From TrEMBL:
The lineage of its organism: Bacteria, Pseudomonadati, Pseudomonadota, Alphaproteobacteria, Rhodobacterales. This is Delta-aminolevulinic acid dehydratase. PROSITE patterns: D_ALA_DEHYDRATASE. GO terms for cellular component: cytosol. Belongs to the ALAD family. Keywords: Heme biosynthesis, Lyase, Porphyrin biosynthesis. It is an enzyme of class 4 (lyase). The keyword Lyase applies. It comes from Pelagimonas phthalicica.
Length: 332
């Protein structure tokens, strides 16, 4: 596109910015609660609302409280809630079997939400890190994060989530071949309507720090995730990963983290035209919410500005811890 601009004063671009009414008429991108997927942290117990110190305003919730959160989200017009379990350290080991336990925390929360608020979509996370004694997304053998044996486990995990009623499965593990394996298994087991939202372009990022505290994986993690998550300097590789996942049966794709990778969102949308999501991750949230809390920035304004940026960059939606706060502002 080459914008046409006649010379001054035939064109005075400030005319279009003069009043709120005129600015609203020509606004190119808008934000609404329907754009949000709300990630929540689930813990055991009842009546539990446990603050996460590195994410001001975010709590670990017991299943009953997650159900209340889902009701609130639905009332605010948020279409989807995404579950991340904080697993009891006693249930973590090297075989990660808790990941496909039909009665694990994530599956109990899914069933409880689908019972109480059937209209909200439930998204679940596929990766072994909440269950793995060493904090990695895959099995570790002799210091290596092994691919194919991990994919077999991810399939069992995803099937248990589909069985529990998950609408959207989000593989965040970055193993090769998992989208194809998951799609094949879901089709074979009668879950042909379950959606796959692939964490297709997921970078090995320091912005995940507060999340790892929230799910209790920080202490456990040995080494880094660079043999499966992407290097920050790469963009062509992101396009290869997205194309590969779409060809294997992903319905939607994600770029993660969000703000430092808006160029990847734009490129992905332009290149593939698939439903594209960005994850505004825990570290991004911590920076904005933390600075807002101290009065260093206007918390509400930076929240909305950061979120509309994703829409402008081509995203169809955003996973954000701000979802309920932003929806409240947008609903007026
Ligand atoms: N499967 C791990 C996973 N799923 C979502 C996040 C990060 C989300 C966030 O930071 O908000 C991570 C962290 C990681 O890869 O170490």
């Amino acid at each position: 596109m080459k914008p046409t601009v006649a010379s001054f004063p035939a064109t005075r671009l400030r005319r279009l910015r003069r009043t709120p009414a005129i600015r609203s008429m020509v606004q190119e991108t808008t934000l609404s609660p329907g754009d949000f997927i709300w990630p929540v942290f689930v813990r055991d117990g009842e009546g539990e609302v446990e603050p996460i110190h590195s994410m001001p305003g975010v709590n670990r919730l017991s299943v009953d409280k997650v159900v209340e959160a889902a009701k609130d989200a639905h009332a605010l017009g948020i279409p989807c809630i995404c579950l991340f379990p904080y697993t009891d350290p006693a249930l973590k080991n090297e075989d990660c079997a808790e990941a496909w336990n039909p009665d694990n925390l994530s599956n109990r929360a899914t069933r409880a939400i689908k019972d109480a608020v059937p209209d909200i979509a439930v998204m679940t996370d596929v990766a072994l890190d909440p269950y793995n004694i060493n904090g990695h997304d895959g099995f570790v053998e002799g210091g290596e994060i092994v691919n194919d044996r991990t994919v077999e486990a991810l399939v069992k995990q995803a099937l248990s989530q589909a069985e529990a009623g998950a609408d959207i499965i989000g593989p965040s593990d970055m193993m090769d071949g998992r989208i194809g394996a998951l799609r094949t298994a879901l089709e074979a087991e009668g879950h042909q309507n379950v959606l796959l939202l692939s964490y297709a372009a997921k970078y090995a990022s320091a912005f995940y720090g507060p999340f790892r505290d929230a799910v209790g994986a920080s202490g456990a993690l040995k080494g880094d995730k660079k043999t499966y998550q992407m290097e920050a300097g790469n963009s062509d590789e992101a396009m290869r990963l997205i194309e590969r996942d779409l060809m294997e049966g992903a319905d939607m794709i994600m770029v993660k983290p969000g703000m430092p990778y808006l160029d990847i969102c734009r490129r992905a949308k332009d290149m593939f035209g698939a439903p594209t999501f960005a994850y505004q991750v825990s570290g991004e949230y911590a920076m904005l919410a933390g600075a807002g809390e101290r009065g260093w920035v206007d918390g509400e304004k930076v929240m909305l500005e950061s979120l509309v940026a994703f829409k402008r960059a081509g995203c169809d939606g955003i996973l954000t811890y701000f979802a309920p706060a932003a929806a409240k502002v947008l609903n007026g």
